[in-house]
Amino acid sequence: MADLWVSLTVLGAAVLLSEATRRAAARLFPGAYWIYLLEAASTFQLCCCTHELKLLGETAQLELPLSLALTYTMTVIHLLTFRGATCNPSGALESVCRCTSTGKAAVILITCQFAAAVAAQFFAASVWSLGLSDIHVRHQRFGFRCFDPLGGTVLEAAAVELACAFIVEAAAMHVHKVDEKLQAHCIAAVITALVYTGGSISGAVFNPVLAFSIQFPCSGHTYLEYCFVYWLGPILGVASCILLFEKVIPFLSGKSTIGLDVPAAQKQKTQ
């Protein structure tokens, strides 16, 4: 139980540090730079918290209800504090496809996300080096190594990541139909269910930059295999979801695709 409280403190510290950064950036760098700093701070928060949750789940042997409750709670906190940041390269690529952002802006945004993901690795290692809990001490003893995150074959893991990304994107595209106060909880419930369902096969990350931070340093598979699972899988999942709901279904139903970017705009406001 002591390990759990230490990890909860680390999670709280990461959220508070990121929130302070977001508020300072809003005051000091209003305008275009704010978007990039928002993405960096929010991605840093997401990766730091996931590092700690992953370590806690793998070593503390938490009961399943508690583990899922932590996943759900932290997801709600992320959604309520991100202020529209996607923390996902797929979101930046989607904005380019929808012509709401330029390719240059997307490249800068993705660069900020990956820089934050690397910073989160250093932050997590620095916290673990303090030896605040037994699980931190044991992790430090093994040199902060993580092992094969795949519980299935590469193809199975890629399929899970694709399916998870598809389902989350579909939920995000239609969550505007739910009462605004419940939108974050609906998305969090979907993500928690996916983590429970696909976590044992691929980790159910469905986010290329998050996977780069928490899964790519792990042994067991090559860099290209991780790229196939955690980068290609989610990107194809998001792309196929957009294609299905905004092109295929309207075409088959005979409806025009004009105005289908409205749900996407509403979705950005709720993330």
Automatic annotation (TrEMBL):
Keyword Hydrolase on this protein? no
Q: Name one GO molecular function term.
A: channel activity
Specify the signal sequence span.
1-26
State a single Pfam family of this protein: MIP
- Provide the protein's localization: Membrane
Organism superkingdom: Eukaryota
State which residue ranges cross the membrane. 106-130, 150-172, 184-211, 223-245
What membrane topology was assigned to this protein in its record?
A: Multi-pass membrane protein
Please provide the record's keywords in A-Z order.
Membrane, Signal, Transmembrane, Transmembrane helix
- Give the main location: membrane
User: Which GO cellular component term is one of those annotated?
Assistant: cytoplasm
Keyword Transmembrane helix annotated = yes
Instruction: Name the protein family.
Output: Belongs to the MIP/aquaporin (TC 1.A.8) family. AQP11/AQP12 subfamily.
This protein is called Aquaporin
